[in-house]
């Protein structure tokens, strides 16, 4: 995808390109053909990074949130389909049959509580069934809870492996979508079931701001300015 880049961004790219060229001229000892290939390769990476960063900046908070949730899902899937040998500095957790003859000895279970906005990851022994390791993730006060992001954090803590800092400092959604759980003025929870078009010519809409929608719990419409988003685990975000 192509995008228009501002003049100052172009100058920044040019300065980085010059620095790379100078670096390669001094440090690389190779044939002219190899040097040229290395330069072009690095320049292509710089240009691609700038385009990607520009495109990311153009995404809405909801789009960034959706991408982060997908990243959390991928992390959990990959972390759950490998082994953690003590020889490699891990706890000795076997989640899949190993090529060295080791058989599955452990399984992962999650306990999700939307009520208290927490996720617990349990590593259980498959023979005895007891819990050998666990990790807990609790949503920070004021943040929007998401079970998938919580699973990624809790599992990483149970396995004692690194996880992206993006999950701890997750971008927060700022637009109502179907499936979200919201807190109403009387502190009860409601689930967004249908978005409706706000019509400024209707007097009842004029004093409210943001998306207008129906919930599963109430008959009348509700405006975004009247509620707080508290849980987007089942939010139906737009696919990027």
Radius of gyration from the alpha-carbon trace, in angstroms: 25 Å
Terminus-to-terminus distance: 13 Å
H/E order of the elements?
A: HHHEEEEEHEEEEE
> How much β-strand is present in the residues?
15-25%
Main beta sheet, described?
5 strands, antiparallel
Describe this structure in words.
With 240 residues, this protein is α+β, with helices and mostly antiparallel strands. The chain has 3 domains: 7-58, no CATH class; 62-159, no CATH class; 181-231, no CATH class. 33% of the residues lie in helices and 20% in strands. It contains 4 helices and 10 strands. A 5-stranded antiparallel beta sheet has the order 9-8-7-6-10, with no helix packed on it. Strands 3-4-5 form a 3-stranded antiparallel beta sheet. Strand 3 (106-113) and strand 4 form a beta hairpin.
């Amino acid at each position: 995808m192509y995008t228009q880049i501002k003049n100052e961004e172009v100058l920044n790219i040019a300065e980085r390109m010059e620095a790379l060229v100078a670096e390669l001229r001094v440090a690389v000892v190779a044939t002219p053909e190899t040097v040229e290939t290395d330069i072009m390769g690095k320049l292509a990476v710089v240009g691609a990074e700038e385009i990607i960063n520009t495109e990311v900046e153009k995404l809405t908070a909801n789009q960034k949130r959706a991408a982060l949730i997908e990243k959390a899902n991928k992390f959990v899937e990959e972390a759950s389909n490998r082994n953690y040998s003590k020889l490699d500095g891990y706890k000795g957790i076997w989640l899949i049959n190993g090529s060295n003859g080791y058989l599955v000895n452990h399984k992962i279970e999650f306990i999700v509580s939307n009520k208290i906005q927490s996720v617990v990851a349990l590593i259980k022994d498959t023979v005895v069934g007891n819990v050998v390791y666990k990790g807990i993730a609790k949503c920070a006060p004021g943040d929007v809870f998401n079970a998938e992001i919580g699973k990624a954090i809790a599992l990483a803590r149970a396995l004692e492996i690194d996880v992206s800092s993006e999950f701890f400092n997750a971008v927060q959604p700022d637009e109502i979508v179907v499936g979200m759980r919201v807190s109403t003025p009387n502190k009860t929870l409601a689930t967004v079931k249908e978005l409706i078009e706000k019509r400024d010519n209707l007097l009842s809409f004029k004093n409210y701001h943001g998306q207008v929608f129906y919930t599963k719990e109430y008959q009348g419409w509700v405006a975004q300015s009247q509620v707080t988003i508290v849980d987007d685990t089942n939010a139906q975000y737009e696919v990027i």
